[in-house]
Amino acid sequence: MGLKGFERRLERLVEGVFARAFRSSLRPVELGRRLIREMDDQRTVNVQGNVAAPNHFTITLGPDDHAQFAEIEESLLRALAEEARNHAREESYVFMGPVEVLLKRDDDLGVGSFGLSARFKEGAGGTAGGAVVAADGQRFPLTDVPLTIGRATDATIRVSDTSVSRRHAEIRPGGGGWVVVDLGSTNGTRVNGSPVTERRLQDGDTITVGDAALRFEAG
Fold first, then answer.
1. pLDDT (tens digit, 9 = 90+) per residue, 86-104?
2. 12 secondary structure, DSSP code
3. Looking at residue 106, what DSSP letter applies?
């Protein structure tokens, strides 16, 4: 799908919502094109033989454009980060850490001009980026602290299902990525339908505990 797919998605996610109120001559899709170009231009092969892309992006805008984009900043940055992850999946890129997009003001830039810098940034404790997404769309970013799943009140992802153990499973860093580990649960943990005791996770894997299905996203 590539760049054209990215543009269509960004227009649908952002411009379709804000087009009537948006008055800047700089369109959000222009930022998306540049971000994708930087990912492709700076991609490199890492020591594991995977193609790595930058994951930390800083967009600089002049004062007028910055004021306009500030009105939609949260939704815009969320959409740009999501589309960066989509592009990485399409191109089989990996990230060194979580995808982050920041917006900054530069008083030396005029209307319609912008800068975008991209760099590689490790996650906390040297872990790669990743998140677990619940069925309702809630995202749980992964860090160097294990993410716990279960019925316990202190679980990171609490599942109120009597077939789920209090401390059912956890996702922890391992081997430069993430592994899911069953914690001796009564009814077991499954990845893509198969029972596991410990399993290295791949982008798009579905982790099932009880009736709850959770999607793993790399980067």
1. 888 788 888 877 788 999 9
2. I
3. -
pTM attached to this predicted model: 0.64
Kind and range of the H or E element at 35?
A: helix 28-42
State in Å, rounded, how far the first CA of the chain is from the last one. 19
Distance CA 27, CA 179 (A): 40
Q: Are 185 and 161 in contact (CB under 8 A)?
A: no
Q: How far apart are CA 36 and CA 127, in angstroms?
A: 23
Type of residue at 16 = G
**Cα of 203 vs its chain's centroid, Å:** 11
CA distance 159 to 125: 27
Distances (CA, A) of 79 to 46, 73, 101, 167: 27, 10, 10, 33
Ranges of the chain with pLDDT below 50? 1
167, two tokens: 């401390």
- Order of all β-strands in the sheet with 194-196: 139-141, 130-133, 212-218, 206-209, 189-191, 194-196
Burial class of 11 by CB neighbour count within 10 A (0 to 12, 13 to 18, 19+)? middle
Is residue 32 a contact partner of residue 57, using CB atoms and an 8 Å limit?
no
